Amino acid sequence: MLYGFIFFIKRMKKQSFVKVDSIEKQVIKMTDEYEGVKSLCKHVSQDLDITIPDDEIYYFAKYLLSAKVNYNFSPQLESEEMKALLHVVERMVADFQLYAAIEFREPKQMIQNLMLHLKPAYYRIKYGIEVENALRDLVIQNYPEVFHLTKKTVHYFEDLIGQSINENEVAFIAMHFGGWLRKEGVMLEKSRKRMLIVCTNGLGTSRLLESQLEGLFSDVQTTGVASLREYEKLDLNVDFVVSTIPLPERGVPVFVINPVLNNEDKEQLLKKVNSLFEHSSKKQIHSVETVMDIVGRYAVIEDDKALLRELRRYFHAPIKMESEAMKPNLCELLPADRIVLKKQVASWENAIKVAAAPLLKQGYIRESYISKMIENVIKIGPYIVISDYFALPHANSDDGVIKTGMSMLHLDIPVDLLEKTAKIIVVLASLDNEQHLKALSQLRKLFSSKEDKDHIVKATNKNQIVKLIRTYSTEMD
């Protein structure tokens, strides 16, 4: 913003001015940002002895509206524009919970955080101010399910602004959802090592990075996420700092990383941090470079890079937490022995009980989980019917989930479910907010195919269902 303002002033000094549409002016004039820029330009005019035309004030206000700013948006909800945006955010969060089959424990806070991001995004798109998201490909690669679910919810935002949203902006929104999922799905453990995270890439990225690092280090306590300005003022009572930018020396080890970590980034960071801890505890340290040097003295190395890569993999294999392990596919979460075929059941409550019985018998859930699923339908309505004849009852992990899994009930005669009907009832039990996403995505893809959906609804034996599940278990969105 500072550099942009400097260039605006240089342009104006050369008597080159912008023109802002009169309708845009009416909208911009109602914002607090416009009043702030107006005050700023008044001081600049006096200090630099230049005249700043009204159109330039509106022009810079557009950029301020489009900037990443953390603020309390409550007073600004007076405008109809922001009320409409808040309604969009609420619907996006509601749909994301529905599609992901999860329930945020702090939905109001999630809505507020997403609103903080979508307000500047709204003005960026509205006024054609494009931003580059260098993390887009990393988000799509490392969090494909979250990115796909986000794309399914952004149509509300697109309807509001009257145009489609590019993948740069979708990735930013996905980072907010992904960060919140990880925040609620990872429990902090008390530990003897303390870590501070310094991130300058905004709220969503900070939350996502924090969750990744918490999942990576099982014996490290995160003391918080700080900005560069906060880092320079903090009393550093930590063992090391992980930062997305180089930092001034303050006597504490600093590891500089990418804002979104891939497997190679995690391996390198683990190697460096483990090396730091090993030195302090006088443990034996395996240096890949030393081993390479020894081997080179007594043997001919045909492929230096390949040997180096294999040695690094052997000595510094990444620690995989349960939440970071490869997500199971549909076939793994919904095996044949958890599929039940019946002609009919007496009620929808009975349908949920029968559908959940295999999970209960195999120790995946407790009785309380079944009661909670039924209670949710009574309280909220038939939200579990997410497609014709297809219902997905579920509850939260702390309602009685022991292990992540699915089970299915296939009915010949549909059951009435509060003014809707269902023939396929798939019970979902997930230990956290992430383990089931890949399988759920594959299941939704199966039921989005009219032909395959008809086949599974009309199936007369378990093998027909299992065959379709196996086919879609290799599918990726």
TrEMBL record:
SUPFAM superfamilies on file: Phoshotransferase/anion transport protein (SSF55804), PTS system IIB component-like (SSF52794), PTS-regulatory domain, PRD (SSF63520)
Q: Does the keyword Transferase apply?
A: yes
Compartmental location: Cytoplasm
Keywords of the record, alphabetical order, are: Cytoplasm, Kinase, Phosphoprotein, Phosphotransferase system, Transferase, Transport
Sequence ranges assigned to domain PRD in this UniProt record: 1-74, 80-187
Taking every annotated instance into account, which residue ranges of this chain make up the domain PTS EIIA type-2? 332-472
Q: Name one Pfam family in it.
A: PTS_EIIA_2
- Predominant location category: cytoplasm
- The answer, when asked if Nucleotide-binding is one of the entry's keywords, is no
The record places domain PTS EIIB type-2 at: 193-281
Q: Which InterPro entries match?
A: Ascorbate-PTS_EIIA_comp (IPR051351), PRD (IPR011608), PRD_sf (IPR036634), PTrfase/Anion_transptr (IPR016152), PTS_EIIA_type-2_dom (IPR002178), PTS_EIIB-like_sf (IPR036095), PTS_EIIB_2 (IPR013011)
User: What job does this protein perform?
Assistant: The phosphoenolpyruvate-dependent sugar phosphotransferase system (sugar PTS), a major carbohydrate active transport system, catalyzes the phosphorylation of incoming sugar substrates concomitantly with their translocation across the cell membrane. The enzyme II UlaABC PTS system is involved in ascorbate transport.
Q: Which PANTHER family match?
A: ASCORBATE-SPECIFIC PTS SYSTEM EIIA COMPONENT (PTHR36203)
The protein's name: Ascorbate-specific PTS system EIIA component
Upper lineage is: Bacteria, Bacillati, Bacillota, Bacilli, Bacillales
